[in-house]
Target: 6,7-dimethyl-8-ribityllumazine synthase
Amino acid sequence: MNIIEGNLVALEGVRIGIAIARFNDFLTRSLLKGAEDGLTRSGVPSDHIDVVWVPGAYELPILTQKMVESGQYDAVITLGAVIRGATSHYDVVVNQATSGISRVALDAGIPVILGILTVENIEQAIERAGTKAGNNGFTYATNAIEMINVLREVTK
Ligand SMILES: Nc1c(NC[C@H](O)[C@H](O)[C@H](O)CO)[nH]c(=O)[nH]c1=O
Ligand SMILES: CC(=O)[C@@H](O)COP(=O)(O)O
Model:
């Protein structure tokens, strides 16, 4: 039996793109901090990380698509935070953002990481952006490195 897994060590030269939404930026900036920490501690130098901002999670799919098409990155991490409000707007933003990113991901040829918090309230969001449950941004970063490495293993 052969077990193939990606390790969490970035190969030299790896470049990461981060597509990040400004909406709820008190949360997305915290996710970004966690992601940068995860990437640099995996061996990605900070000058190999590009961070590109868009207004909200709804805009993440098109930015992600353009970043993938640029051919500059070994993985793209999306970061956003959508919090349920009083209207159905939450469902529209979440559905469009997640289905758009999933569509891009399948054709990307590189890992695309879904790093959007989709939560019922601010407390849930804060817990996932750096308090009780740690910082999901850090995990999104290590997910990106693991995916780069495992895809290389299975395609070599
Ligand atoms: N309500 C949230 C939004 N809404 C904004 C949209 O994402 C979009 O920027 C606007 O409709 C213009 O196209 N975005 C989030 O990231 N999080 C939210 O909770
Ligand atoms: C994504 C949202 O639901 C949000 O920020 C909008 O809130 P509301 O539904 O109260 O307008």
About this structure: Residues 16-155 form a domain with the Rossmann fold fold (CATH 3.40.50.960). Strands lie at 16-21, 49-54, 75-83, 112-119.
